[in-house]
Amino acid sequence: METVYIPHLLNRTGKQWSIDINEHLPWLDTLTPVRGNLTLTHCQTYLQVEGKLDTILTLTCDRCLQNYNYRVGITPQEMIWLQPDPEPGSVPLEQEVGLEDLVERLPPNGHFDGTTWIYEQICLALPQRQLCSSACTGISLSGSEDGVGVDHRWSALSQLQQQLENRDN
Ligand SMILES: [Zn+2]
After folding, report:
1. 103/45 Cα distance (integer angstroms)
2. How far is the CA of 133 from the centre of ligand 1 (A)?
3. Assessment of whether the complete model's pTM goes beyond 0.90
């Protein structure tokens, strides 16, 4: 989606802009397009952003390494302060960082980049621990000939160990 020039919001009814979304993001491989909408409201000192986002992604299970589909359906909201960037050099290097400095801010005459915002919201909504199901038992070890299962993820490590031993001899 296009970026929004923030001062343009002031000319709109209710200082508000709603945008329908139905597109694939450039940096996120989703199975279905991201669908939903974004509403921007100019509240003088801050920009209120509300979204409704729906998409399906293919994730890799942390236990069994199989791919599985994961649906993200979120209604994120954020306040972005409209403040000019401080002049370079005017901020003391050892300035304490207060809580209010941790929120997002944009210059009042800047642009809102909806694509980046949507990307960040979806990334935040992904589970830290990705499991295909809570009952996933992980990689099957059956089928190894001697009955002692060797996780194939370790094979590169044991090869390296072998090389180091050969070099030392
Ligand atoms: Zn799994």
Report:
1. 13
2. 6
3. no
